[in-house]
Write a structure and sequence with these properties.
By secondary structure, this protein is mainly α. Helices cover 60% and strands 0% of the residues.
């Protein structure tokens, strides 16, 4: 007997029951135990789960559940910002890209500011990390032709570095690492 696509066992699964306050708390706890997160990301996750599964019972705001998780110490926005910012900086991303990533994670300006300032202070080091990975500027085998230079400049700009720092790194001769100002 041949099976058709509609005969698959996955098509016969029951839909999960709608969420209630206790189930939402369990989902939140499960999420924070598995992932480092911020209140904003947890709120987005819980709101998505409510949309997908529906709701049964008195209304509960996902932001209030995320706030309770933060008050219990399961979510720490400042710590998340520092860890995420440090990880991005180690990969060679610039302050602009770090700020945008933290904003997208739902962090408020108060939690983002120290991390972004630290990234701005270490702008050249971050650009050089990325340049080393991509073999740009002082880490290239030879000076690039004009078209390749533009591509390299674009890579540094997309990584969130300011144009002055990006040009300084790209225009460095192979083997000559620019000094901090």
């Amino acid at each position: 007997m041949t099976r058709t696509l509609t005969d698959r066992p996955t098509d016969r699964r029951r839909a999960p029951p709608p969420l209630d306050a206790a189930a939402l708390d369990r989902l939140a706890l499960r999420y924070v135990e598995r992932f480092a997160t911020s209140r904003g990301k947890l709120t987005q996750y819980l709101a998505r789960k409510i949309r997908e599964r529906g709701w049964d019972g008195p209304a509960v705001d996902p932001a209030s559940v995320a706030q309770r998780m933060a008050e219990a110490g399961y979510v720490d926005d400042r710590s998340f910002a520092e860890q995420k910012g440090a990880a991005l900086a180690r990969r060679g991303y610039g302050a602009r890209r770090i700020a945008e990533t933290l904003r997208a994670a739902g962090l408020d300006a108060e939690d983002r500011a120290p991390v972004v300032e630290e990234a701005r202070a270490a702008a050249l080091e971050g650009a050089l990390r990325l340049a080393r990975r991509k073999r740009i500027g002082p880490f290239a085998a030879a000076r690039p032709d004009p078209r390749e230079r533009e591509r390299q400049l674009g890579a540094l700009l997309r990584a969130g570095h300011d144009s002055a720092t990006a040009r300084r790194v790209v225009d460095s001769a192979p083997g000559e690492i620019p000094e901090p100002e």
